[in-house]
Amino acid sequence: MLEYIPVLLFAFFMSLAAVHDLAALRIPNFVPAGLALGFLAAALLTGVSFPTIGAHLLVGFLMLIFGFTLFALKVMGGGDGKLLAAAALWFGPGTILVSFLFHVALFGGVLAVSLIFFRRIPLPSMVHNQKWLMRLHDADVGMPYALAIAAGGFFVFPESLFFS
Prior knowledge:
The protein is mainly α. 71% of the residues lie in helices and 0% in strands.
């Protein structure tokens, strides 16, 4: 039964981040915090060694610096940077982290191209009362990058130390 807790925690917080970002272009702080604390709880409950936990924490910290740098350069939102770091905790050092980042970038590219096309088509008047959809359609607004981060995370999670 304990083996399902990591999968459920990861899926819950990543899905929550994607939904919040899609609906409001904002990721509440409790989401990446919950994802980070969920990692610690899952690691302790499943018997991950302390050196391995430490390596994962180091990766998370380095990814947080990377995310803050992207935010400072106006490449990514602050919530996206925090989510990227919290998700990286689950993957730790090694090829799985590289795979995660590659897939986030890949899904981010698909998302960007999709949004470009979506924003070029006129929306029918019957959806004009849907604020989230109108915001998503606005070319002057950013994109909900948590969708790409979640997709990348879901894609590589089966390779993680929590999946068996």
